[in-house]
Amino acid sequence: MGICCMLAPLPVIGFIHCYDPEPKYLVWLGLSPVGLPNALIRPLLLTATLFLGPLVDEVVLNGHPGMITGLSLHHVNLKVLRNYVVAPLAEELVFRACICSLLVHGGWSHSFAGIVAPLMFGFAHLHHIWEHMRHANHGFAKALTMAGFQMCYTTLFGIYASFLFFRTGHLVAPFISHAFCNYMGLPDVQSLFTSEYKNLLTMVYIAGIVGFVSLLMPLTTPEWYNPYIWYYPDSDGGGRGEDGETPNQSFDNSQRGDHTNEIQETKEEEEEEQEEEEEEEEEEH
Prior knowledge:
Elements: H1 2-7, H2 9-19, H3 25-28, H4 36-50, H5 52-61, H6 66-69, H7 78-105, H8 110-123, H9 128-135, H10 140-168, H11 172-184, H12 191-194, H13 198-215, H14 247-284
Helix pairs in contact: 2-7, 4-11, 4-13, 5-13, 7-8, 7-10, 7-11, 8-10, 9-10, 10-11
């Protein structure tokens, strides 16, 4: 698996080299120093907002501050590195930096890439059927149900991660959000019904969801990052290129310029035809 992840960027780099007149390999893979501090902080804050309910439940109401401080150097082992570093990094490298960039560079829309890559990401988790059957001794039906549920929520996360990748142009944005989600796990919504603070907790959960939706676009404003490489005439967003224009503006201006040139060429051809007709009439007289 590790070898496949290491080799995954090679076909992307080859494709970009063949079809891009000015290839920017690292930028296409989401590796750029421009806007990096914002890409480290803002997407993480956005993702943490969605988990506001579970964070308040565990840290404040249940008094488990270790949820925040528990990952010290003394607790780092191979399992921790796999779950919170290696797996998120490898999956984001393959499914965002490689698959998303390859689809977009191949001419597909951002919407198409933002759905197809997450579906691949979700289906890649179906192998857990075997783990549920072998290690947990579950029957096939139960293992399929559990793996199918995991495929659904990983696909939803993949859509969110692709959104972060397209809006920021940075691999680190979906990676750090992925690592945080792995650490938090699925929210334990049972506390909404059993906790003595269930009313307060319900309001906090709702506040987190509303805050996430409200901050989704503002905290991923493209101008804070370096996403200009992603923007094509059919894309949305406000990324600006090196000339200070948005790609849509550049495209509109180029279209306008091409149309003006066509009009000028038509006028010149008409004038030449008129001159030729006048010369022919003069010769006849």
